[in-house]
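Whiteboard transcription, Tuesday session. T.W. wrote the structure tokens on the left side:
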């Protein structure tokens, strides 16, 4: 009888075709797990798809609503051109601190990813002057 906890060979093969996540992705995942929120993080395949969409759109300015621990912003950042910037909005201060640690460890300063703390229904208005934005990823409630 097959062990159902093992990944099917099909999934193992598909995963072998994609690059593995780096230590910064792992750190973001660890923080999400520590918060008990690991299951709501992007799967690696979802992250790569998001990165692909961003690279196709070639945006200069991106807004992400719902930072959590910064995992999706890492994928967004990989898809950006060298001149791009992400504003990521998060209302939970604990999540903001985790994301900032991840971005700092990855060497991504606020000129590349800016974390905006607060409820997006309010903080979005403060970003009007920074617009227009070319890409929006809504990953929050």
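and on the right, the sequence the group agreed on:
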């Amino acid at each position: 009888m097959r062990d159902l906890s093992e990944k099917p060979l099909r999934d193992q093969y598909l995963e072998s075709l994609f690059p593995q996540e780096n230590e910064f992705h792992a750190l973001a995942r660890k923080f999400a797990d520590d918060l008990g929120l690991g299951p709501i993080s992007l799967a690696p395949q979802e992250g790569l798809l998001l990165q692909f969409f961003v690279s196709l759109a070639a945006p200069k300015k991106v807004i992400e609503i719902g930072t959590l621990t910064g995992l999706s912003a890492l994928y967004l950042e990989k898809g950006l051109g060298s001149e791009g910037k992400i504003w990521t909005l998060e209302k939970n201060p604990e999540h903001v601190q985790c994301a900032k640690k991840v971005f700092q460890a990855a060497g991504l300063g606020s000129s590349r990813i800016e974390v905006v703390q607060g409820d997006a229904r309010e903080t979005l208005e403060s970003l009007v002057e920074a617009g227009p934005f070319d890409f929006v990823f809504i990953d929050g409630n």
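Someone added at the bottom: The first helix runs from residue 9 to 16.
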